[in-house]
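[scheduler] slot 2 assigned
[scheduler] job type: sequence-to-structure, two independent chains
[scheduler] chain ordering preserved from manifest
[runner] begin chain α
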Amino acid sequence: MMNFVLLCGALMNASPGETWPAFRGSGNSISDAQNLPLVWSNDEAVAWTIELPGYGQSSPVVWNERIFVTSALGDDKAKVALICIGLDSGEIVWSRSLASSQAAKINGYISVAAPTPAVDENRVYAFFETGDLIAYSHEGEQIWQRSLTDDYGPFLGNHGLGSSLAISPSTLFILVCHDGPSYLLAVDPSSGKTIWKAERPARVSWSSPIAADDGAPIVISSNGTCEAIDAKSGEQLWLVENLEGNTVPSATVTKELIVVGSSQPGFNLAIRRGGSGNVTNSHIRWRSGEATATFSSPLVYAGHVYMVNRTGVAFCLNAADGETVWKHRLGGSCWASPLGACGRVYFFEKSGKTSVVAAGPELQVLATNEFPNEDRVYGVAAVNNTLILRTGKTLTRIGHGVDQKEHRPAQATSKGQELHSSRTTLPDLPRAITSFGATVDNGWLYVYGGHFGTPHHYSAAGQSNALWRLNLQQPESWEQVATGPKLQGLALVAHGGSLYRVGGFTARNKEEEDKDLWSRADFARFDTASRDWHQLPPLPVAGSSFDAVVVEDKLYVAGGWAMRGKDEDAVWHDSAHVVDLSTAELTWQELPTTPFHRRAVSLGSLRGKIYVIGGIGPDGKTTTRTAIFDPTANRWSEGPSIPGDDMEGFGTACDTVGDQLLVSTISGNLLRLAEDGKSWQVVKKLNDARFFHQMLPLDSSRLMLIAGANMESGKFSSIEVTAVDDQQH
């Protein structure tokens, strides 16, 4: 489960730049810290990394050279713990644990120590989705303890709680939103006693309350509404209703506005502060029809609003009117909220990669930092000279003793260019191939398998078993890093620092023999660090000539057929499957029956939906039709057909660049899905028309068209680099 939380609070006697008292610091993800690190890696600017006891999804908080984090202990969260770590040493100063009031079996779908602690000059406070609420002194002495599940009933639902403490100098605020009786609770920090309890309707949400100033209204954006609550009485002051998708991001409060984040387009908006009663029709300043904030909360910094959507596209909006200023494709999605500090905005991807851009209306990428980890980055803290990153099991301090001026990258460029933006050509693959798998991970382009033999004749002699890679930052030459089974018609995807190889077919015949082709249910993970393949639970059905795509942590497979040798007819699939890559035990789940039987398809994703493009059916006819699967609604629907004759849908390639879904066709057309999702637009004509190729993003504005074949010239080994024409977007 992800860190769905936001903590905040304006605290007395907190030295600017030296404390990070709650999640998102003082509730807005802005830090006054000085000399924050700009550049780091495994070998540079890392002071220490430590293993934490148990597992937790909370963010770190900091006070007077001490860091505090929470964890859950045991497979069923039998205990919960608060841990104190020395900022300079990285050593555990003390750790306190207690038996959980409401234990639950840990799995990939339920929160694990998700609420972040809060700290002031007197105490540190911890709240857990087990219902336990507790206060300690800075030295680890327990001051008070209570169980909200004992007091007010158990927490209900399948995914746990993620809402974190909001803290002001006089009050702790706890929002409990679940399938049972829900409420907002105000608690005395010194005694733990309830000041007031405001009942709320039962509804699931993981956002957190915002306490912008001591005594100011508490702001809650949660599952359909945004509202202000009187901090002294718990009474509702005003309400904005009819919202959608605001179950995860928390609101961000400025002097004039309240910015609401949502996973749904059209519901990311700004509300004028003040008013009374239902202000839905009177106080909404602006709505963005383009930007979304899926997991992380919006940042308002230097006159602009920054959001990150589900697919890892960062948006910069004008805070005054909500107009999109720029958008930038990150390497992946972010569960930690973006940070504003030192005139920069930091985007912390869950993979460990961090992109740093200059704050302001011009996209200026200052640095892209690789710090891969086996888990996810759940939260961050920022104090002078230091960033602290928390994954489920580790804590890392970055920036100790580093003079950032000496480490500014020579390649740092201006006005929207990435580090490799001057590169217009890439070296050819070692051989010309079709029907292969390809993906990009941590700055490397990977290619696996494929067909290099006689056209239209498949044999073991013409199939590749090699995994090649190319460094996209310094693309001098290809390197073979591993081998595996000979395969073509497979899918290759990247997720969380690993590669995943799915299906494909193997030729059992020699060159001079009749074709004997067998589709496989093969599923394997490649560890890019150890360069080893690891077999995983196989597909429920053997398949090839399909495609796969990762949306968040889930790998979706659709289309294709199962070839069963020279004596049996192939079985055309009307099934699709998904596996959650975030779970410890991978299990394939079958999706609703597909409304098609097609192979030679391509898959892409946009705004959380999966698109299946074109293909060929059992009757031998090609099609330009598009099918759409909505994971939220768990159903298929018909999308717009791509333009042109039926052959345009044969052997296409599909991917997302920025917030654009693009398709490359057999005639050399590059197509883009229109903003309203009802048609495809021709972006440009590519230099080489290709089919059974791959298309992947090189950066936020350019594509790589990789290998494949052409009806006239045959197979390609070349890679075409082309810009997406933003003028037409």
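[runner] end chain α
[runner] begin chain β
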Amino acid sequence: MLIVAGLVLRLIDLAVVQRHFLRVQGDARALRVVSEPAFRGMMTDRNGYPLAISTSVFSVWINPKEFSADATSIRALSKILSLQFGNTQKLILQSKTKQREFVYLKRNLSPEIAQSIKALAMPGVYLQQSYKRFYPEGEIAAQVVGFTNVDDKGQEGLELAYDQWLTGTAGKKIVTQDRKGRAISEVEVLQRQQAGHDVVLSINRRIQYLAYRELLRGVQENNAESGSVVVLDTKTGEVLAMVDQPSFNPNNISQQSKESFRNRAVTDIFEPGSTVKTFSAAVGLSSGKYTADSQIDTNPGWYRVGHNIVQDEHNKGLITLAQILQYSSNVGISKIILSLPPGNLWQLLHAVGFGQVTGVGFPGEQAGKLVNRAVWPPFALATLSFGYGISVTTLQLAHAYAIIADGGIKLPVSLVRIDQPPTGTRVIDAKLAHQVLQLLEVVLLKGGTGVSARVPGYRVAGKTGTARIVGIHGYEKHQHVSTFVGIAPVTQPRLVVAVVIHNPRGEKYFGGDVSGPVFEKIMEGSLRILNVQPDDPNSLIPTKP
């Protein structure tokens, strides 16, 4: 009877007196708040092709207090996870010593490996589901799309710019677990899982690939240091392609150089050289003092400005304003700009966007440099007229030429697809923009610096640029930036393509010779991809020898 009385008293003690305490202790051992990772939004090109998608992966972690740290268990785990036995053993023993309850062994594992770990049924070994980013286009769109880290957070490119939009909200729920940590039932949902939003880019995957391929070829053939290309839709301001060399594989960034991560088209600035002559000619035409047929004497091929000399590659003698662009005469364009009010050129360059970010929203975008002087020294103004003393990005240069292509209207630049074209701002008179477009077409005629950029079947307007690179001792004699920017078709402009190749170390270095052929291939392929009708079919007919 004493034993029975004791059991009854103990039962009362457990069921009544200590009921709350025991329930809390039981819940602490059986109930767990688990997290459900959210699916990161997908990034696609303008036609829905995936550029960044998330795939399901697993992480293996252990609770050192529950895990039996014998050599057999550690060796089995190390073999499946492709880890060194000694390193794994050291990590687990150190965690036990420090009384930790959570230690990652390896993250981002495939479902197949996770299943092998699960089959071991080791106490204290757990799997955690998450998502890993995968980039189907690899190097082709790497600098634009960017990449995420091991926690699926944007680190570079548009993955970083749109991180909050792409990132979903992880779910949280209370579940009942058995003694092996397996979820038996769901008790309560604390927070529902919400997937991230998708982002549809303005990029056309086919044009992006074309631009990447041709830029890579151009950089390799000219043994260049780097290069970048931007393809803009002149009617919407959308970026159809943006590529850089060297590139990297975003699916395996551990083996990549951080130098290749940056998007050179928006982060690297350079002096654009003779591509600025387009706007200098526009200033001359807008003054009313000059026309396309106005003649300027460039004899004897050089021009003294103060204590300095402005020089041409070849003496062209008496030439028209149109021929100044065609032959890319530094002397001719300097004489025009120095004959006009000093602030006129700066005002136009500022109006078309130089010295300002484009507003495209890309991380690390540079504004370039455009100094507004209270007093313009003649030589500073002269060099500005042919693209020195100003620094720009490839995107800025393409954007400025898009204004001419669109009849003087400045549209916002977008890396996201636009379904309704925005309203732009007029910064150049329509008649003046048309005149400049006609002048740029002359550059690609016989004898012009841009002959290599001609596209069969289409009328093309464009401008070459060659500028020396500044080094520790001033302008380097054998280091150049070679540029070509062009518009096509001239009758109804649709595309602007800007090609910039840094420091070509082959036999050629002029913009027309280095960047012109790259432009021709990209423009021709892009127009055909977009099914733009040729406006110069006669150029497709071979001429008789």
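[runner] end chain β
[qc] chain β: The radius of gyration is 32 Å.
[scheduler] slot 2 released
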